[in-house]
Amino acid sequence: MKNIRNFCIIAHIDHGKSTLADRLIETTKAISERNMHDTVLDNMDLERERGITIKSHAIQMDYIHKGEKYVLNLIDTPGHVDFSYEVSRSLAACEGALLLVDASQGIQAQTISNLYLAIEQGLTIIPIVNKIDMPGANPELVEDQMVNLVGCKREEIIHASGRTGLGVEKIFDAIIDKIPSPKGNPDAPLRALIFDSMFNPFRGIVAYYRVMDGMIRRGDKVKFVNTGVSYVADEVGCLRFDLEPHETVKTGDVGYIITGVKIAKEIKVGDTITQLNNPCGEGIHGFEDVKPMVFAGIYPIDNDDYTDLRDSLEKLQLNDASLVFEPETSIALGFGFRCGFLGLLHLEIVQERLEREYDMTIITTVPQVSYEAYLSNGEHLTIHNPADMPDVTRIDRIEEPYIKAQVITKPEYIGSIMTLCMDKRGILINQTYLTEDRIELHFEMPLAEIVFDFYDRLKSISRGYASFDYHPIDYRPGDLVKLDILLNSEQVDAFSAMIHRSKAEDFGRRMCEKLKEIIPRQMFVIPIQAAIGAKIIARETISAIRKDVTAKCYGGDISRKRKLLEKQKKGKKKMRQFGKVEVPQEAFIAVLKLND
After folding, report:
1. CATH number for the domain including 96?
2. Enclosing domain of residue 349
3. Which of 86, 141, 404, 423 has minimal Cβ neighbours within 10 Å of its Cβ?
4. Are 31 and 98 in contact (CB under 8 A)?
């Protein structure tokens, strides 16, 4: 075990984690030149296009240091706030972390968030200033920030460039000299932490784990502690570029297990693997079921594709265990699913993967958060969909989820950022100067307010300099109402939204204006109304297409023309009474872009 090192790379989005990982892999020749390409650990098209890591990835490398061979297990982690649980489990599988900071951008929100996670796990931190070859690099200033934040000495900070490979040798030396070798008891019962899993269509779920105590052999009967299911280990091994089978995986090492299981719910990130015949006393601490934060309805454009959409979501769930869904129906959209996501980026990625990987054309409804409704009779309901909201007269109070938000920015943008956060019902908790030109703001605000357009607006008012991170804290009572949209006096459930009373009128008016632009004119007048209960708070009217029925009257008495107009009026009244308004698909998409 003394020659094993388990480490991960933590950083804010776009600070060069995946590029530096490429250089480490290239130096150790863990992948042949033929298979090597940019961001080799990001194996999804979406990850490469967006330049972000969505899934954790692990790879084993061999390195010769002072004539001795060392086995290095690198676990690459996602950088986005939506995937922080995955990051925390990856950190739990390591003894050390490379803390990467971009020399031109400095310390940002996710850097601090991930650093705190690493310190909580007791990891050894190796500070690295990356991208020092960039034209806008200011390594001295970033070093000051890192000394203040990490409490390290200036000479301990390594200068590196993931693009050119500068500083890679020093990083390897620091990994071997500073990160401790794994601690564990090889003779104790098996305890292994699952930090990631992926789905193979032929072999089922492949779980990645780190062995804390004992060893795992091929053919062992293993049990998953938190889910309580047991399987036979068909294959175990270590994680090279491809899966490399071994007879055993020993204490301190990182490996994979294939048991043939094809049900995503039975293998969860953070669970503990032990042997069925000789189980460990208790599982590894820190396991939790991932709770979705944002909910939206996903519907097929053609109702005949409903079963295909269900199959696609089930397959996607095998690769992404944090996605949850259940069937629901909508009068306007037909059959579909109410899906739960970790955040808005997660929703975007699921949407894009459904379209690309499974060729599904879908409509997504307005994203919502979950609310807690307490009724006058003492009953308590969790509401993911505004359509499920009970009658106003039965409700005692509604509670909404609150988050603690952390914004790091330059001092010149403080005013506009504070205005934005106050506008979103945020409460300023404190502000701290990290350095002369870096300030950290803490807010408490409702999660519902950041779901729509908060991140985009924050980036635009700070010219891209502000970074944002958040974590949920609790539920608090709020003056929330259900806003309905009525078309020709009929409620369209897909447009319903839960909203704070102070924002309802403005939101309702903008909804009506947007729908007036999109819904085509009919032969009768269509009123578009926004309502809270029975009270109409906004209205727009789509005027009727008018046919000139008096065109055939050339000359003659005025009463003849009036008779024709009266007949037309009666016809239009009848039409409006029985006519149905077809809502085009663009309308549902336009509502999602209401704030653009």
Report:
1. 3.40.50.300
2. 298-319+327-365
3. 423
4. no
Task: Domain count for the chain, please give it.
Answer: 5
Domain boundary, last residue among 428, 452, 477: 477
Query: What does pTM read for this prediction?
Result: 0.72
Per-residue pLDDT of the chain (596 residues; tens, 9 = 90+): 788 888 888 887 777 777 888 788 888 877 666 555 555 555 455 555 555 555 556 788 888 888 888 888 888 777 666 667 777 777 888 888 888 888 888 887 777 778 888 888 888 989 888 888 888 788 888 888 888 878 888 888 888 887 788 888 888 888 888 988 888 888 888 888 888 877 777 888 888 888 888 888 888 888 888 888 888 888 898 888 778 888 888 888 888 888 888 776 777 778 888 888 888 877 777 766 677 778 888 888 877 888 888 888 887 877 676 788 888 887 767 888 888 888 777 888 888 888 888 888 888 877 888 888 888 888 888 888 787 788 877 888 888 888 888 888 888 888 888 888 888 888 888 888 877 777 888 889 888 888 767 777 787 787 767 777 777 888 888 888 888 888 878 887 777 888 888 888 888 888 888 888 888 777 777 888 888 888 888 888 888 777 776 667 776 777 877 877 788 777 767 666 555 666 666 666 666 655 54
Task: Give the CATH number for residue 462.
Answer: 3.30.70.240
Q: Flag whether 186 is in a domain.
A: no
- Two tokens, residue 480: 């929330």
What CATH number has the domain bearing residue 341? 3.30.70.870
580 lies in the same domain as 467: no
The residue out of 178, 212, 238 marking a domain boundary is 178
What residues pair up with 445 in beta bridges, in sequence order? 403
How far is Cα 265 from Cα 480, in angstroms, rounded to an integer?
A: 34
Euclidean distance between CA atoms 230 and 203, whole angstroms: 17
Handedness of CA 450, 456, 459, 462 (dihedral sign): negative
11 in a domain, yes or no? yes
Residues 439 and 516 in one domain: no
**Rounded CA separation 44/48 (Å):** 7
Place of tokens 């007791």: 122
CA angle 526, 529, 535 (to 5 degrees): 140
Q: Report the distance separating Cα 394 and Cα 374, nearest Å.
A: 9
Same domain, 208 and 146: no
CB neighbours of residue 511 within 10 Å: 24
Determine the Cα–Cα distance for residues 241 and 239; give it in Å rounded to an integer. 7
* Residue found under tokens 């008016």: 509
- Note whether residue 252 is domain-resident: yes
Say yes or no: 268 and 412 in one domain. Answer: no
Do 564 and 576 share a structural domain?
A: yes
Q: What is the DSSP letter of 310?
A: H
Q: Are residues 136 and 47 in the same domain?
A: yes
- Give one word for 57, left, alpha or beta, with left for phi > 0 and alpha for psi -120 to 50: beta
Gap between the Cα atoms of 461 and 419, Å rounded = 11
Shared domain for 465 and 333, answered yes or no, is no
Chain position carrying tokens 């969909």 = 385
